[in-house]
Specification:
The protein contains 6 helices and 8 strands, in the order ββαααβββαβαββα. The chain is 34% helix and 32% strand. The protein is globular. It has an 8-stranded mixed sheet with strand order 1-2-3-4-5-6-8-7, sandwiched between helices. With 194 residues, the protein is an alpha+beta fold.
Length: 194
């Protein structure tokens, strides 16, 4: 616990259905395409702006520079059966002094929902965060209408900690955002239990 955690290492994490690997600029077209999916937009609260060509340039620059950051870990989710980009899983906002960070995940298309990819990617990244990096806490935010994601988060061990009331304005209504977190000892107990 004396050594501050860092995301300097950019690992590849292998699961049964997905592979997590560092993002590259070559992933940018798939990222931009995913943001055209209305369900992906809704679940991430994303409102694409600007022309598609400019969005692609910005996405390429964003992904190209992720390896330079030791305070975050951006991994592409790759569908093992096809080798195709299936989304991203990210550990971000590292608070090294408190051994904590935030987590976010987005699958690239609604056709990928319900296949267990998000669950497996979340487990892989949490295992890395707690068992390799040495974090104490990981938290996330999930929109109140995203019950499928909340179910996944609860299944892997996240606990509801509170609500940011009416934090998102979407399609003419205010949406609450739920805050969830998981601690290293909670993660380990779940792994030991099977």
């Amino acid at each position: 616990m004396n050594t501050p955690p860092t995301f300097a290492e950019k690992p590849t994490l292998e699961g049964h259905h997905v592979l997590l690997r560092p993002v590259t600029a070559a992933d940018a077209p798939a990222l931009v395409a995913s943001m055209a999916d209305p369900e992906v937009q809704r679940f991430t609260g994303t409102r694409p702006t600007g022309d598609p060509e400019r969005r692609l340039e910005k996405a390429e620059e964003w992904y190209r520079t992720r390896a330079d950051h030791t305070d975050r870990l951006d991994l592409a989710i790759v569908e093992r059966a096809t080798g195709e980009y299936a989304g991203e899983a990210v550990l971000t906002d590292l608070d090294a002094e408190n051994h904590s960070c935030s987590f976010r995940i987005a699958l690239a298309s609604s056709r990928l929902f319900g296949r267990g990819y998000g669950t497996e990617a979340t487990r892989l990244l949490l295992g890395h965060a707690f068992d390799t990096v040495g974090l104490h806490r990981v938290d996330l935010e999930v929109f109140a209408f995203n019950s499928r994601a909340r179910h996944v988060y609860e299944k892997v061990g996240f606990v509801w900690e509170g609500t940011k009331r009416q934090a998102l304005y979407w399609d003419g209504e205010w949406i609450d955002v739920h805050v969830m977190g998981i601690l290293a000892d909670e993660w380990r107990r779940r792994q030991d239990a099977g």
